[in-house]
Amino acid sequence: MTISPELAAPPGTEPAERGSLQIDASVIRKIVEHATDQMPGTLRATRRVAGVAVRENGSNAKVWVGAEYVDLRLTVALRYPGSVTAAVGQVRARVAEDIERMTGLRVRGFEVTVAGLYRDTPTRLL
């Protein structure tokens, strides 16, 4: 990919003078949910209406973005049997690592709610 000359910064321009990058909270939310859904101890829930499977839901995150930090609230379903503490610890570590690596922001607050423990694919809405 090449940058057209009219969009390129003049030679010698300091990085701080070139502009800024803002990452929308919805992008960070998708990073959190994707990372969580990839963890081996988490499950996706199937939403049913009148006994008919409608769609599949994964984890659900709410995100608040500050200047250099992110606060998260995550709802997730976990596999049973298994250690809730270990699964939540792994999710926290993976999400914090992915957020920092992809956005440069650090996770300041991280609240996790376990919506349920399921042996196989759950049939409830998170």
Topology at a glance:
Blueprint: H1 25-37, E1 42-43, E2 45-49, E3 52-57, E4 60-65, E5 69-79, H2 84-103, E6 106-118
Parallel strand pairs: 5-6
Antiparallel strand pairs: 1-5, 2-3, 4-5
Helix pairs in contact: 1-2
Taking all Cα atoms into account, the compactness measure Rg is 19 Å
Largest β sheet strand count, sense and barrel closure: 4 strands, mixed
Q: List how many beta strands DSSP finds.
A: 6
One letter per element, helices H and strands E, the order comes to HEEEEEHE
The share of residues in helices is 25-40%
Q: Treating each run of at least 4 consecutive H or I residues as one helix, how many helices?
A: 2
Structural class: alpha+beta
Distance between the ends: 42 Å
Instruction: Using the alpha-carbon principal axes, give the shape.
Output: elongated
% residues in beta strands:
25-35%
Which stretches of 5+ consecutive residues score pLDDT under 50? none
Mean pLDDT: 84
Describe this structure in words.
The structure is a single chain. This protein has 126 residues and is of the alpha+beta class. The protein has helices at 25-37, 84-103, and strands at residues 42-43, 45-49, 52-57, 60-65, 69-79, 106-118. The strands form two sheets. Strands 1, 4, 5 and 6 form a four-stranded mixed beta sheet that branches. Strands 2-3 form a two-stranded antiparallel ribbon. The termini are far apart.
